[in-house]
Amino acid sequence: MHAWQCRETTGAKGLAWTELPAPVPGPGEVLVAIRAASLNFPDVLMTEGRYQVQPPLPFVPGSEWAGEVQAVGPGVTHLAPGQNVACLSGSGGFATHAVAPAARCLPLRPGFDHVDAAAFIMTYATAHHALLDRGQLRAGETLLVLGAAGGVGTAAIQIAKACGARVIAAASSEEKCALCLRTGADAVIDYSQQDLRETVRSLSDARGPDLVFDPVGGRLAEPAFRSIAWRGRYLVIGFAGGAIPALPLNLPLLKGASIVGVFWGEYARREPQANAAMLQQLTDWHADGRIRPVIDRTMPMSQLPAAIERMTSRAVLGKLVLVN
After folding, report:
1. Based on the domain organization, do 183 and 249 belong to the same domain?
2. Do 27 and 149 sit in the same domain of this protein?
3. Where is the Enoyl reductase (ER) domain (predicted)?
4. Which of 64, 131, 292, 319 measures 20 to 30 Å from 298, CA to CA?
């Protein structure tokens, strides 16, 4: 097998396409031939040594992927060779093969292709957990999505619309705003050209959004929070903008608003039954056509460094997927 090994935490420069011994699944594990793997922002941070999880060097990055089971280890009864699965393993995906815990593999229904499956679990589970569990989104409410043209942003738009909410999508270019409208947003804000707070105010009849979905952080956080409605909920998803913002605590006091942390990975670990039910609902919605990953493009697995460059330059619209 071959895999991209991260040998030093210097980003793409520290990666090398390496031949490795063929892995053998142990108890509770499966060997999967990887057909597609999506590139997520945490993957980039991990190669730079800036993510909360830092595997020992060398390691194979790639947290989310899909493929065909080739062998099962002792004790695995719910998966079989030839079965298609999606997996969120945390690492190992930027390769031709991977061994993963069978419990982390999601069996795929017929017709769920590998590219969609590789771009599905992380973004949709994060958005679903954020909006419906942590944010308690209700039909008729207004949601503001920051970084709305990215993978998790487009997932949030689709899930919110499936639940009957009104969506204001904020992104950094005219092209990205157009994508958000095609994805289902009711209104858009180009925050490279428009004042975020004032435009949100005009689009919400001065009331503000009931929820703010923020995977960006940085300079957008405070004006977004200042726009929030009475009893609003501000969902802290991540910090793709780089800087972790510091919000004045008088703001939630004055608005009767809540700052709500979202850590889907820990939720999945602590509440596996609830997480499994959520994933079942998401796969049902995908089968019904209510949600579908927005794919920026596919690239050969050999082009991982170029894919990282595209992501770090903020050029990705939706999800970028590498294929074998």
Report:
1. yes
2. no
3. 11-322
4. 131
Contact 69, 13 (CB under 8 A): no
Containing 288, the helix (H) or strand (E) segment is helix 272-288
Residue 227: both structure tokens together: 């726009």
Tokens encoding 207? 């009331």
Cα dihedral value 100, 101, 103, 106, nearest 10: 0
Which pLDDT score is estimated for 41? 86
Q: Are 196 and 204 in contact (CB under 8 A)?
A: no
Closest-CA residue to 239 (of 262, 223, 209): 262
Q: How far is CA 83 from CA 104, 108, 117, 132, in A?
A: 14, 8, 13, 31
Classify residue 32: in a domain, yes or no: yes
Domain hosting 111: range is 2-120+293-323
Q: How many CB atoms lie within 10 A of CB 75?
A: 10
**303 lies in some domain:** yes
Q: Render pLDDT for 262-282 as a digit per residue (tens, 0 to 9).
A: 999 899 989 999 999 999 999
Two tokens, residue 238: 């991540």
Residue 156: give its domain's CATH number.
Answer: 3.40.50.720
| Concatenated DSSP letters of 163-226 | TT-EEEEEESSHHHHHHHHHHT-SEEEETTTS-HHHHHHHHTTTS--SEEEES--GGGHHHHHH
Give the pTM. 0.90
Q: Which of 324, 282, 315, 244 is nearest to 129 (CA)?
A: 282
Q: Please report, for the domain that includes residue 34, its CATH number.
A: 3.90.180.10
For 92-111, what is each residue's pLDDT tens digit? 999 999 999 999 999 999 98
Closest CA to 58 of 66, 67, 50, 47: 47
